Amino acid sequence: MKLEKIKDKVWISSFEEERDRPAIGYVCGEKHCLAVDAGHSGKHVEEFYALLKEKQLPLPDLTVLTHWHWDHTFGMFAINGLSLAEKRTEKHLQKLRKDWDDGTEEEMKAMDEHIALEYQDQKMCVVGADVVFQEEIVLDLGGVRAECFHVESPHTDDSVLILLPEERILFFGDCISGEYPEWIVDINYMKLLIQKLEGLDFDTAIGGHWEPSSKKELLDSLKKENGLLSQ
């Protein structure tokens, strides 16, 4: 795993396909430092923090989730500071906790080889967020704001975007994907998402499992992949 500098205040970790580890975002303000997503596991968080320390960057004291899926949330028990989740995300996490039993971990490993690889030598731990917001929240990190807000998407019903207006950067999690595990894209949700993205002011788009791209590159690829180029 590597740490890539996007701008003076913004960094991201590299994503990894083998263990389905998404990129974790990092925004360092004058008052607070924010992580975007909590990683796939405790070890994922530990390795991410080690990279920050190597660069002499403060650990995040805030972590916001883009959605509830395990690869973005199962490291939350190991984070520094407070975690934040939109109410739909928290509802999914609490349901998962309520339904958890002795066989759940093995079922999840059997469901997905990437999960099995990540959890070869560690245990799963699911926790809820410290702070739950409804629809949107603006975090003043000091010299940079993080606008976190719910968006309709074909991936999950709890997708959250994180916009940094001063940096002109958008974190979009996995919201451009179809629904797991078939990855089928609901075209109506995709149209709503594209319309929302078109109306946002940003230059750089950062997702969980993609290389950073420009706004134009992101929108062009979404329209092409979903047969919407003429619309």
TrEMBL record:
Pfam families: Lactamase_B. Residues 21-209 form the Metallo-beta-lactamase domain. PANTHER family: ACYL-COENZYME A THIOESTERASE MBLAC2, METALLO-BETA-LACTAMASE DOMAIN-CONTAINING. This is MBL fold metallo-hydrolase. The lineage of its organism: Bacteria, Bacillati, Bacillota, Clostridia, Lachnospirales.
